Amino acid sequence: MRSSVLIGICSGAAACSLALCSCDRQEPAAQRSAPPPVTSAAPAAPALPPVPRAPELLGALRTPAHNPTTPQKVALGKKLFFDPALSVDGSRSCYSCHQNEDGTGGHEPLAIGAKSVALPRHAPTLWNVAYLPRLYWDGRADSLEAQAKAVWAGDNMGVGQENLSAKARELGASPEYRALFDAAFPAYGATAETVVQAIAAYERTLFCADTAYDRFMAGQSQALTSEQKAGLQLFQGKAACNGCHTPPFFSDAYLAEGGSYHNTGMGMEGKPGAAVDPGRQKVSTSPSDWAAFKTPSLRNVSRSAPYGHDGSQAKLEAQVRFMAGGGFKNPNLDQKMIDKQLSDAEISQLLAFLGALDCPGVLAL
Ligand code: HEC
Ligand code: HEC
After folding, report:
1. Which of 97, 77, 87 is closest to 159 using CA atoms?
2. What is the whole-number distance in angstroms between the Cα of residue 90 and the centre of ligand 1?
3. Exposure winner among 120, 125, 190, 208, fewest CB in 10 A?
4. Ligand 1 site, residue 195, Cβ cutoff 6 A
């Protein structure tokens, strides 16, 4: 890990310097004239960093009215996110499957839950999840709160819907957590609802809007190399990747109320129809959604291998060739998936451009 704690909640230089200032509460020595008053009260808790400002270029945050983000919830949610005690057997934290080393996506092609339960899909990255109208590869969750509750109860963490309240009470019984829950949710303390609200509040601080591409778009023409500039031209021209990987999120799934799903044929080759993951169709029941998946954001993509809903592609270059080559032919293939006939040099340019979408932040406790 190469960065300080503060970077994880900062979107850019401005937000980071704000956070740094708020922690720097030391008075200059010359002004400390009077001795500190003698008191038996507990020492005041250290000041929390303010909630990071949402980057303007990403638009309005989707924060539900019942769960406004506060510094106290973010501090609690961050601790919960990194704590394996949240899982049924103490083996999995949220972070276990969303690590920096994997670009905040999964390490294994298919995730492995608590008690070593094999899961059917690959873990996506977490940057900018606060802006997604629908979560999961098939869009079955409509808020970060609902999504966090589902992974916590389900096979990922294995706690079970009926045991969430008891688990919350167990966590809240430790003095450290009790203080954090009381500060974040004074009237409620540790409940299943406050656990997921705190985690969601923390997730709403995970911004990625300060990439080389963003600096280029803000007018710094040197922020991209000439190879990357050629890749950007291809991305929105001949290769037409932006038809689905639409800026600023590099996914159209952030821009439509119900999310956006496409069949690219990924993971289908060599599988009989019955073995194919039906994707969005399971949620919408519409045949036109068969084996269609939410378009993943391409921010941080060069660091988030392996790729696809099933993690079946280990290498970014092979993934780009697959997408540019029109995907895998099947009866429901999206009409935009056509062979763009790119040369090797053009594939290299696209790859160089994707590297300009690397996110500078890290998740850190
Ligand atoms: C065992 C691994 C595992 C653990 C533990 C885990 N996740 Fe995930 N996460 C996944 C997988 C796999 C998916 C995709 C599942 C799907 O789409 O069907 C996912 C999806 C998500 C998404 C949706 C992102 C998107 O683009 O739609 C979010 C947000 C998320 N996880 C956050 C969390 C949080 C918060 C926790 C802890 C409460 C957590 N995860 C714990 C594996 C895990
Ligand atoms: C028809 C819409 C569409 C077009 C056009 C498209 N993609 Fe995709 N892309 C998707 C979807 C959907 C997925 C997820 C597929 C799956 O997992 O089943 C995806 C996955 C990816 C991934 C893997 C990301 C990850 O985190 O797993 C990369 C990289 C990618 N596309 C790059 C490109 C490039 C480069 C182009 C242009 C040559 C392109 N795509 C064109 C819809 C599209």
Report:
1. 87
2. 17
3. 120
4. no
